[in-house]
Amino acid sequence: MKSLAEDAQAEWVNADSVPPSICLPSTGVDCGVAQNNLGFMYANGRGVKQDYVEALKWYGLAAQQGYEAAQINLGVMYANGQGVEQDYSQTLNWYRLAADRGSSVAQYGLGVMYANGHGLAKDDVQARQWYLLAADQGHVQSQFNLGLMFLTGQGGDSDEAKAISWFEAAADQGSAAAQYNLGVLHESGAGVSQNGEVALGWYLLAATQGDVLAQVNLGLLYHNGQGVAQDFAQALKWYHLAAVEGDANAQFNIGVMHANGQGVARNSMQALRWFELSAVQGDRFAQHNLGLLYQSGDGVAQDYAEAFKWFRLSAAQGFTPAQVDMGWMYANGQGTLQEYERAHMWFNIGAAAGDADALNGRELIAKQMTPQQIAQAQKMARDCRERSFVDLD
């Protein structure tokens, strides 16, 4: 199943300011409103120089009068250490006061604190309970977080039906992350009947809001013709939106389309460009493809040393085709010294994954080696795997 969007529990949410009102005894206006608004202006530099200390003072005055928004904002300032030393116990105190008065924002804030163990012992059961109180009032982030908790069994029993229900509630309020997760669930058939067309609809809603993960998955559906007629132009469009935001998967996929001439004229130079953008972010597939282009001189001057570098990075992440290519590079002395023991080592590692090319390479190279060299190469392969491919030299 594709990766789900995770929650944003670590983010603190300020209560909105309210329209200013004149605070005079004769007007009957609650001075807490005006004091909170002053705090908001100082905290955000609205009409005055930003001053967290002043903001804290005015929020404090309003909070002491029981004004919920100020209690929440005061809690946020203590959580962030704005105008005061960070103090989660104070945040907890002010959030509880507002939550007890029914504030969904404060209830969500308490859920965040329990979920992350801020100022108290981490407690997913309590987090779920506070999110539920807020979600029942329509708090969208709480609905999303509840969906995740029911899906994963965090803080209680897992329940895919309830997870989907809460994701749908959040999605109906415009949560791109919830829309994306519903797309993943419908595409994979987790908790619902597998339906690429429905998945595409959810991805589209999230993608049009700028959700990068949804843009990539939408591109994949168009690329592969899942739930929709294959459309390379649409695939490129959505990949590109995600790629310019730095998404390595999207960059890799654009490289593939340029390499294969899908929706565009085949262009190895463009493929190389996109593979490199993805590879430098650590994408093992892009690293391998980049190595192949340098090895063959396709779209770039042939450079075995560069090919070796990218194959090695990919192989170290466990990508079997790159491990096999490392075997051949050592066997042929391309981009490195010819070393049969290291060639055998990489073929051995690839063969352990059942790769036929690795098995063939190992058999061929073994004919050039002594029994002692083979034994040493096997030991090197074991050591390499035990170190998770760290410090290979």
Structure notes:
By secondary structure, the protein is mainly α. The chain is built from 20 helices and no strands. It has helices at 31-44, 52-64, 68-80, 88-100, 104-116, 124-135, 140-152, 160-172, 176-188, 196-207, 212-224, 232-243, 248-260, 268-279, 284-296, 304-315, 320-332, 340-352, 356-366, 371-386. Helix 1 (31-44) runs antiparallel to helix 2, helix 5 (104-116) runs antiparallel to helix 6 and helix 7 (140-152) packs antiparallel against helix 8 (160-172). Residues 8-13, 16-22 and 24-28 have low confidence and may be disordered.
Kindly list the characteristics that best describe this protein.
mainly alpha
Give a quick rundown of the structure:
By secondary structure, the chain is mainly alpha-helical.
The level of helicity is 55-70%
**Subunit arrangement of the protein:** single chain
Report on the biggest sheet: none
C-alpha geometry: elongated
Termini separation (Å)? 36 Å
Please state the structural category. Answer: mainly alpha
| Percent of residues in β-strands | under 5%
Cα radius of gyration in angstroms: 28 Å
The pLDDT mean sits at 92
Task: Work out the helix count.
Answer: 20
Unreliable segments of 5+ consecutive residues? 8-13, 16-22, 24-28
Order of helices and strands: HHHHHHHHHHHHHHHHHHHH
Number of distinct beta strands: 0
